[in-house]
Design goal:
Shape: globular
Structural class: alpha/beta
Number of helices: 18
CATH architecture of the largest domain: 3-Layer(aba) Sandwich
Radius of gyration: 23 Å
Mean pLDDT: 94
Low-confidence stretches: none
Bound molecules: S-adenosylmethionine
Helix content: 40-55%
CATH class of the largest domain: Alpha Beta
C-alpha cells in the first residue's frame, strides 16, 4: 500500500468530523482529500480512461441532457423516478441510445437507477435550473473547443505565450478576430449563456459580503458619509446584478444607494429594472467613473480579464472618482498561490489563457498593478474554501499622512 494512503485516510476522518460539525471549508477539504486519494491510488490505464474517455463523454452527455431536457424530466419525476420507456418517449431519444447514455451518467454518479427506474440526484436536480443549463451550453460550446485546441494553437504559434486579446486559443477555435467580450456581444446566445454562467459559477460559496469574509459593517457601513456621496456601493462590471442583489439581501438595512454598472447590452438584458432595489447604469470602465466619492467600488472578476496595462487603465479611470481615505476599492479576485494552487484557481487561469490571453495573478503581481495605478493595498481578506479573495485598496494623495483608522495591520 502506498504510504500516502493511511495518511490521507486519517485526514479524511478528521475532515469528516469537521464536516459533521458544519465547519466552514470542511466540504471543500473532503473533496480535495478525495482527489488526493485518487491521485495516490490511480494507475495510468485508469487515469487515461477517466480523463480522456469518461470525463469528455460525461460533458458531452450533459450537453445532450440540456438538449433533451433530461435533468428536468428526472427532477419532475421526483422520488418515483421514470421508467426507461417513458424517459425515451419524453426525450424522443432512441431507447437503446438513451439506455447507454444513462448508464454512463449512472457510472459517473450524476443520476441513479433503482427498481427499473431512472432517478435524478441532488446534483442533476440542481443542474436542471435554467442558469445551469445555459452554463453547460457556455462551457461546452465556448470553453471546450478552446481547450481542445490548446496543443494545436500552441504548436502553431511556436509555443509563445498568447498576449493579444484578439489572437489566442478562443479566436483559433471559433474562427474570429474579435476579443472575447466583443465576440460575446456579437454572438448574443453566447452572451446570454455567459451572463448565466457568471450568475452561478460561484453559487454555494460564501460571497465577499457574507459574515466572516469582508467586514462590510466595519469597513463600509460604519463611517458611511452621505455628504460625500449617496452611493454606498458601486458594482463596476457587475453583470446583470447577481452580486448586488445578494448584497442587498445580506445587508438589507444598509444606508445609501447601491449601483450596478456594465456594458449596454448587459444592462439592457435586465428585466423589470424599475422594481429592483438597486440602480443600474451603462458605464464603460475604461472611461472616467461617473459616480464620485462612493464609499466603495467593487470590481469582481474584472481585472483578471485584462492584461496589466489595461488593468492599470481601468484603475486609473476609477481613481479620479475616489475620495482619498474614504472610498474603498474592493477587488474580488483569485490570488494565486505558487505552493498550493487549487483547481478552482488554476482552472480559472486556464479559462483566462483560453479566452482572453491573460492570467490569474499572485499577490506580488496584484500589488504591482494596484501600486502602478497609484492606489494602496490596505488588506487582503480570504475565506476557507473560496477561490477569490477581497483585495481592499484606496487612493492616498501623495504626501498625505497615513490615516490610522484605515490601516488593517496584517494581510489576513
Ligand atoms: C467576468 S465578468 C464579471 C461579472 C461580475 N462582476 C461577476 O463577478 O460575476 C466581466 C464583466 O465585465 C463586463 N465588461 C466587459 N467589458 C466592459 C467594459 N468595457 N465596461 C464595463 N463592463 C465591461 C462584462 O459585460 C461582464 O459582465
Amino acid at each position: 500500500m502506498s504510504i500516502l494512503v493511511p495518511n490521507i485516510l486519517e485526514r479524511v476522518a478528521a475532515a469528516g468530523r469537521a464536516y459533521e460539525a458544519e465547519q466552514i471549508g470542511s466540504r471543500e477539504s473532503l473533496i480535495e482529500l478525495g482527489r488526493d486519494l485518487v491521485a495516490a491510488l490511480e494507475i495510468p490505464s485508469e487515469f487515461l480512461q477517466r480523463s480522456f474517455w469518461a470525463e469528455p463523454a460525461l460533458s458531452a452527455h450533459c450537453k445532450f441532457a440540456v438538449e433533451v431536457k433530461l435533468f428536468q424530466h428526472l427532477r419532475d419525476a421526483g422520488d418515483a423516478g421514470v421508467s426507461p420507456g417513458d424517459l425515451a418517449q419524453k426525450t424522443s431519444v432512441d431507447p437503446i441510445l438513451l439506455q447507454r447514455i444513462m448508464r454512463h451518467l449512472i457510472a459517473m454518479k450524476i443520476v441513479s437507477f433503482s427498481n427499473g427506474r431512472f432517478l435524478g440526484t441532488r446534483l442533476s436536480h440542481e443542474l436542471a435550473a435554467d442558469n445551469y443549463q445555459k452554463s453547460i451550453d457556455f462551457c461546452y460550446d465556448v470553453s471546450r473547443p478552446s481547450f481542445n485546441g490548446f496543443p494545436g494553437y500552441f504548436k502553431k504559434s511556436g509555443y509563445r505565450l498568447p498576449t493579444s486579446p484578439n489572437e489566442g486559443p478562443l479566436q483559433n477555435a471559433h474562427g474570429t478576430n474579435l476579443p472575447f467580450f466583443p465576440w460575446l456581444v456579437a454572438t448574443p446566445p453566447h452572451l446570454d449563456e455567459f451572463d448565466n454562467f457568471m450568475s452561478v459559477y460561484r453559487a454555494g460559496k460564501a460571497n465577499w459580503f457574507d459574515p466572516g469574509f469582508y467586514p462590510v459593517a466595519e469597513r463600509l457601513i460604519d463611517g458611511f458619509d452621505p455628504s460625500c456621496s449617496e452611493a454606498l456601493l458601486v458594482d463596476v462590471g457587475g453583470g446583470r446584478g447577481h452580486d448586488v442583489q445578494q448584497f442587498l439581501t445580506q445587508h438589507h438595512s444598509h444606508p445609501g444607494k447601491v449601483v450596478l454598472q456594465d456594458q449596454e447590452p448587459v444592462i439592457a438584458a435586465i428585466k423589470d429594472k424599475e422594481g429592483l432595489p438597486f440602480e443600474s447604469q451603462v458605464h464603460d470602465f475604461f472611461k472616467p467613473q461617473p459616480i464620485q466619492s462612493a464609499r466603495a467600488y467593487s470590481l469582481h472578476s474584472i481585472l483578471h480579464d485584462w492584461n496589466d496595462e489595461d488593468g492599470v487603465r481601468i484603475l486609473e479611470s476609477l481613481k479620479p472618482a475616489l475620495k482619498p481615505g474614504y472610498s474603498r476599492v474592493l477587488l474580488n479576485e483569485i490570488v494565486l498561490s505558487e505552493e498550493k494552487p487549487t483547481i478552482a484557481a488554476t482552472s480559472m487561469d486556464m479559462m483566462m489563457l483560453a479566452h482572453l490571453s491573460v492570467r490569474e495573478r499572485t499577490e506580488a503581481e496584484w500589488r504591482a498593478i494596484i501600486e502602478k495605478a497609484g492606489l494602496k493595498v490596505l488588506a487582503i481578506y480570504n475565506y476557507p474554501g473560496v477561490a477569490e479573495s477581497v483585495i481592499e485598496a484606496e487612493f492616498r494623495e501623495r504626501g498625505a499622512a497615513n490615516d490610522k483608522a484605515n490601516e488593517v495591520p496584517d494581510v489576513m
